[in-house]
Amino acid sequence: MSPGFSTASNWIRELGFGAGMGLSNIKKCADSMKLESVVGVGSRLEIVIYLRPESNHGKDQHVRPV
Q1: Cβ pair 51, 45 in contact under 8 A
Q2: Which class for 34: exposed (0-12), middle (13-18), buried (19 or more C-beta within 10 A)?
Q3: Is residue 14 over pLDDT 60?
């Protein structure tokens, strides 16, 4: 898909909506990304962003899933 791709209909884009964050911006933030799109059905975007806890000076670190 090319930059600026949108699944929004023309009338939505004419109102200034439908661009969202943009795939290129999402790719910059994500550790992995999967996009599936079927015309007339819809789109599914799955992104994974790993949270890296800051050092807590030797104490046990617990990371909760988000």
Answers
A1: no
A2: exposed
A3: yes
In angstroms, the CA 24 to CA 5 distance is 10
> In terms of Cα–Cα distance, which of 48, 43, 38 is closest to 18?
43
Compute the distance between CA of residue 55 and CA of residue 59 in angstroms, rounded to an integer: 9
* Number of neighbouring beta carbons within 10 Å of residue 54: 6
pLDDT, tens digit (0-9, with 9 covering 90-100), for 56-66: 555 555 555 55
Q: Residue 51: pLDDT above 80?
A: yes
Amino acid symbol at 38: V
